[in-house]
Amino acid sequence: MSSTPIRVTVNGAEREVEVAPNTTLLDFLRDRLQLTGTKECCDLGECGACTVLLDGRAVNSCLMLAVEGDAREVTTIEGLSENGRPNALQDAFLAKGAVQCGFCIPGQVMAARYLLSRNPHPTLAEVREGLSGNLCRCGGYVQICEAVLAASEAGT
Q1: Which residues contact 123 (CB under 8 A, 6 or more apart)?
Q2: Which of 6, 41, 145, 146 has its CA 20 to 30 A from that of 134?
Q3: Is the overall model pTM greater than 0.85, yes or no?
């Protein structure tokens, strides 16, 4: 299968790479760039574990082809850190005990980042709606919502 050249900015770093036309954005991030914070789970867009920001908007990277990232900006969970340390939103998840097993957390944090970028002071109902595309099998929704609200109050 032939490769397609793309230029994509990932976590602030511009990359020029060649990808197979059928490579998903998720596989490109995990396998090619070794950014394994973005999780692979359902491959159907049902669970949200693969959520990343594409040009600032939350998307399921398992449903997108890497070539769709051409001339665009992708932010993964690794791109949220500040000077190698968790950012305030990530700290709120830790402080509220919202991490549990941790598998869904990168997607939850990315969805929360998107929500807070559009609505800096959401209500609990708005947080629940904003995270509705992200499933948690450990049942930590209360702590996750508390973490997003705490980050909102802190001005994240």
Answers
A1: none
A2: 6
A3: yes
